[in-house]
Design a protein that fits this description.
The chain has 191 residues and is α+β, with helices and mostly antiparallel strands. 35% of the residues lie in helices and 26% in strands. The longest helix has 19 residues.
């Protein structure tokens, strides 16, 4: 697919007929979920807002420069729309995603497993914190009995997950923006 070389951030993996500006991953919260695009045939420029939740496209809308009176008004409209949609489609909490049962799970509970180490058998609750620290508690079947050890592991996992309170975003800028939007909403309601 031919690329317009005048656009330094053009990418060959864009939609047919589009040039998309892919800037390096940014920490600027105002750039989250917004990219600049140019239609190849018409040359029309726009800001595109795209939001995914759980891998599913939820929001996809363009704000053309011409219909909004220029680049800055189009950008302002795109940011306003993106902010509304982020509140409309909130991300899941990480602890919610961690509770989803995977196909290879054998215990029936995510984060709880039964393991045998030589002569000893344990029910283990384990998860990993955002900073990579592993949380793990094990309960010996011989000491507690099968059902009680499993029950204790389930309760330990609940305690571990209660400490995980962050949202799931691919980029830190998205999480920062969402937190800022929530603060703005809560202060607006308090007034």
């Amino acid at each position: 697919m031919p690329i317009d070389q005048s656009d330094q951030f053009s990418s060959p993996d864009t939609e047919p007929g589009m040039i998309t500006s892919h800037a390096p991953v940014t920490t600027d919260i105002n750039d989250y979920a917004i990219i600049r695009v140019r239609h190849k045939k018409s040359g029309a420029m726009a800001w595109r807002v795209t939001l995914y939740r759980e891998g599913v496209l939820k929001v996809h809308k363009e704000f053309t420069f011409i219909s909004h009176g220029g680049e800055r008004p189009a950008r302002a409209a795109a940011e306003h729309f993106r902010n509304e949609q982020m509140l409309r489609f909130p991300p899941q909490l990480s602890c919610t995603i961690r509770k989803k049962l995977r196909a290879n799970n054998t215990s029936g509970l995510t984060g709880v497993s039964r393991q045998t180490n030589g002569k000893n058998t344990y029910w283990i609750a384990q998860t990993t914190t955002r900073d990579g620290k592993k949380l793990s508690r094990s309960f010996n079947v011989e000491k507690f009995g099968e059902e009680q050890a499993k029950h204790k592991a389930i309760e330990a996992l609940k305690q571990q997950l209660a400490t995980i309170v962050h949202w799931t975003f691919r980029h830190q800028a998205g999480e920062k923006l969402y937190g800022k939007l929530l603060l703005g909403v809560s202060t607006a309601h308090e007034e």
